[in-house]
């Protein structure tokens, strides 16, 4: 086991803006987890702490081996039951942060001041910052360090002039969920200056730009895990 630790961050949201059940997306946690867990210690965290809710639709959709193993894994169950509150997390304990998707991050993590501060600390401490699907929405408040030349003005968004991806508006439209969240992640990333990249709807796409690693959709979870593994070994 490597001494480096990774923080998986989950949403605490149970319902979307339209009232449908929501939560974190099963495959987007399971697939990267089993790539990383054999080599690194992984802690779980969420805005409200223990037992972040899984999106029941993702449980119905994903019957693959890793997803089913994740649901039954006693270690995972313990980690979920004892998930840290974001306010109790010390970024200094970790080498990387990973945001699991699901519609929830757009609703809670994107504007949660505790999350925004934590993600900024990770980024400005030269740690790896990663997210998949709707997860990049948790990073829209993160900026590069202030420029001392400008007298300490806030730095630019971490997405400005960096390559990135997330669930596309086309995919959201096909899911008929555009009104379930307060903003569209693709639109926001583009507004923030991202060099947005994507594959076809629900095809895997992982984008790496330095310490920023993003995945497009549920099919990209494994690839994000693999990219994170490579980055940690560098």
Structure keywords:
9 strands, 7-stranded mixed sheet, single chain, 234 residues, Rossmann fold, two-stranded parallel sheet
- CATH C-level class: Alpha Beta
User: Could you give me the name of the CATH homologous superfamily?
Assistant: Class I glutamine amidotransferase (GATase) domain
Sheet/helix structural class:
alpha/beta
Shape: globular
Question: SSE order in H/E notation?
Answer: EHEHHHEEHHEEHHEEEH
| Annotated CATH topology | Rossmann fold
Q: Characterize the biggest β-sheet.
A: 7 strands, mixed
Number of H- or I-type helical stretches: 9
Helical percent range? 25-40%
CATH architecture: 3-Layer(aba) Sandwich
Cross-sheet strand order for the largest sheet: 3-2-1-4-5-9-8
Distance between the termini: 16 Å
Number of strands: 9
Rg (CA only): 16 Å
Low-pLDDT segments: none
Instruction: Compute the number of structural domains.
Output: 1
Provide the β-strand percentage band. 15-25%
Please state the average pLDDT score.
95
């Amino acid at each position: 086991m490597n001494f480096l630790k990774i923080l998986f961050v989950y949403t605490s949201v149970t319902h979307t803006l339209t009232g449908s059940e929501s939560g974190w997306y099963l495959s987007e946690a399971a697939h990267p987890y089993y790539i990383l867990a054999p080599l690194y210690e992984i802690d779980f965290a969420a805005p409200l702490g223990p037992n972040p809710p899984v999106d029941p639709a993702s449980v119905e959709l994903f019957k693959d081996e890793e997803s089913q193993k994740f649901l039954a894994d006693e270690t995972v169950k313990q980690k979920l039951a004892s998930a840290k509150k974001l306010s109790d997390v010390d970024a200094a304990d970790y080498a990387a942060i990973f945001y699991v998707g699901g519609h929830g991050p757009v609703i809670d993590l994107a504007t949660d001041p505790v999350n925004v501060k934590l993600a900024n600390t990770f980024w400005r401490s030269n740690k790896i910052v990663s997210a998949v699907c709707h997860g990049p929405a948790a990073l829209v408040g993160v900026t590069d360090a202030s420029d001392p030349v400008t007298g300490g003005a806030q730095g630019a968004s971490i997405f400005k002039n960096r390559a990135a991806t997330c669930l596309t508006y086309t995919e959201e439209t096909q899911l008929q969920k555009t009104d379930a969240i307060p903003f569209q992640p693709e639109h926001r990333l583009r507004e923030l200056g991202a060099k947005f990249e994507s594959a076809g709807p629900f095809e895997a796409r992982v984008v790496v730009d330095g310490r920023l690693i993003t995945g497009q959709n549920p099919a990209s979870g494994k690839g994000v895990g693999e990219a994170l593994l490579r980055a940690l070994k560098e």
